[in-house]
């Protein structure tokens, strides 16, 4: 594959594969590069995506890859992109095995969660099985259980308001960080949400199911599941950062990459979608972004070829 492609998609998750599907149906020469190590592999089921609710993420991916095979303009390779370079003719992507040139690149590499860096013993064992980051993805399954919200004094207290919608039994654990805003404490207490500021010693679980949270003073508090608003996630690749793509403030104060309505960055021909752009988009939103950018690129190419 030595000729210059129209599009290279780096990343084959929901966002990347959705973009590839639209580009394939538009008969646009596209290469998908994917390592097949998605962020959501730790979970048992994916939820909130119409017609795919409850399926394992791997099942959704395999179906997508199988359906992509009928579009001859799309080539899928299980290769890791190592470097992305911008040049006069577009972009060059270097992988473990080859070098590819394209006029456009879509970064859809997502984020990786860094649960171990949070430093709570036993958290890794329950993450994705009974402790989750997204109530829209897993809140229904955790409904009416004894839940914990684990995080810092700012994020955990704010997140608890949302989790309260799914269960009346919610406790905030700030892991040693005091909540200094008395108005927040009063408001949570008014809504029946106590705050435990003591440092967490460990989480006890059985086959991935949270059973209790042990505090530094020895107190053991029964919990059946929980949510964690900050997974300390980082970008899976540093391509956008290295190229100097501009950022702006997004949801909950998170830094996100600045794009236009078509998900194109300030670097012409470079698009960022899904978790790679926002840090957390969810499956359905990522699929939507992929579809949107596939259409946008198709329209760009149509305009370029119109005499």
From TrEMBL:
Protein origin, superkingdom: Bacteria
Pfam short name (any one): Pyr_redox_2
The FAD/NAD(P)-binding domain, residue ranges: 6-289
GO molecular function terms noted in the UniProt entry: oxidoreductase activity
InterPro entries: FAD/NAD-bd_sf, FAD/NAD-binding_dom, Ferredoxin-NADP_redctase_2
Region forming the signal peptide: none
Keywords on record: Flavoprotein, Oxidoreductase
PANTHER family assigned: THIOREDOXIN REDUCTASE 1-RELATED-RELATED
Protein's recorded name: FAD/NAD(P)-binding domain-containing protein
